Each structure stands twice: as structure tokens, then as C-alpha cells.
């Protein structure tokens, strides 16, 4: 439950991303600057968190072992996650982006077969190939149904072009974020803490952000003061606080693909935080009764996902134990 709690807290701070990105877009800011400035601002704070003792030295030693993998998965986990999110923000409101982002719940579950997990059985711990948690996946569908109920009325007023440009990039991001995160956990093998891993991935993604920042400079000029300030707060709330909370939560359950999917499912609640944020700060309309019903589906689906994922895990262990008895 500790991992679930951290996941919910991270979803609150992640919500700042969608609200502030929409605010920057409405004020005329470039999505290229919105994306790259966040990681430029994150870097010095992460350095301060890691510098001192052997933590910085350990990180550098680990990065030297697999520099191309840090570059690749840092770019995938951070670059191909956040750049598409910002791009989508230019074509749709924050609530639609946050709602579509919940596809990461399904993406995280479907990625399970690409990784191995450690299961403690009566005969001792064993490593097996991850399996898709079908029971938990069915609960994820309830969450997405709730999201659809909340946003159906709003999405029906958008053109097909805007819907596609606000949805397709987020689908890419929903795959890239859990994929990059899990790949880096495998590469680190538990040798680095959350702060070290986030700093390493940020460093690995820097070439990508430099390229985006350069393009922004030549196409849109320097960012405005408002966009710079808001990007700073996105970096603090979402880039530092939310990312560290989320990565810490996934660290607790990194060897259990079922529980990992449950932690990723907690991100669904950020839809509620984004809706409240847009109502307060961007004068968005109040939710309709259908939207309120959708919120209940999201919260209920998240709770059921957590419970069913635990039963999935118990069934898997019992199946392995019984197989060993008759082997």
C-alpha cells in the first residue's frame, strides 16, 4: 500500500504538467520550449540531490558501463514521453490530454512480457518471464471507461484533426514512459537510488532537449518570461517531486510486474486533479453529472485494480508451487 500511496501523491504533482502546459499554450508559448525548459531546470536540482559522498561517483561509473543504453532509454523514458505530451497540449485542453494519458495503464500491463520478475515461492525465489495481468487489465478498462465518460461531451466538440493530434502523441508517450523507466531499472540492477537514476536519465536525454531548444530558438525565438516561470514550476512539481515519488513507488515493486502495473494505474487519479486545477486556474466549466459518474468509475477502478492485482499475484505463486510439487 505504501507504493500505491506514493503513486497517488505523484499523480497530484504530475497534474501540474497538464494544467500549466495548457496555460502556456493559451498564452502563446511554444511547446518546444515547454518541453525542453522543464529538463534544463531539473538538471541543477538533481545535481544538488546527488552530489556528495559516493552517489555521484557511483552514478558516473554505472553510466560509463552502458553509455548508449543511458542515452537510448533516457531519451525514450523522458524525451519521447514529455515532448509528445507538450505537443499534444498545443491541440487539446489539459483534461483531454490527461484523460488520454491514462492509456499508460494498459501500456504498462501489456509491457509485462518484455521483462522478467522475481517471485518468492515455497521453494525459494525464482525469476520468470512477466505475464500480462489479465484480471488487473479488466479493471484498467473500468478506469478508462470512467475517463471516457468524463470527457465524452467535451471531445465531441473538437475537430477530428485536433482529436488525433492530441491523442496520437499521448499514446506514444504512454508507451515510452513505462518502457524507459523499466528498462533503466533492469540496467541499474538496484545499484542506484531513485535520485541517481532520474539524474542519469535526465543526462541521457539532454542531447534530445538541446536539439529541441535549438529548433525553438530559430523558429520561435527566446521563451517569454511567463513561459519560463511556468516551466520552472513544472520542473519542480512534476519533474522533480512527482517523478521521484513515482520512481520510488516503482522501485518498491520493481520485481513484481503485477504490482508495478497497479502502481502505474494510480496515475489515473490525476485526471481529477487536472479537472480541479483547470476549474480553479483556467476557469474551466464545472463537471457535468456524467463527468462526476466517470470520476467514481476512475476511483473505483483504481481500487479494484489494486485488489485484483494482488489476487493475480497469489494465483501465480500458487500455480508455480503446485507445478513444482508435481514435477
Automatic annotation (TrEMBL):
Q: What InterPro entries does the database record attribute to this sequence?
A: EmrE
- Protein name as it appears in the record: Multidrug resistance efflux transporter family protein
Q: Which organism is it from?
A: Metabacillus sediminilitoris
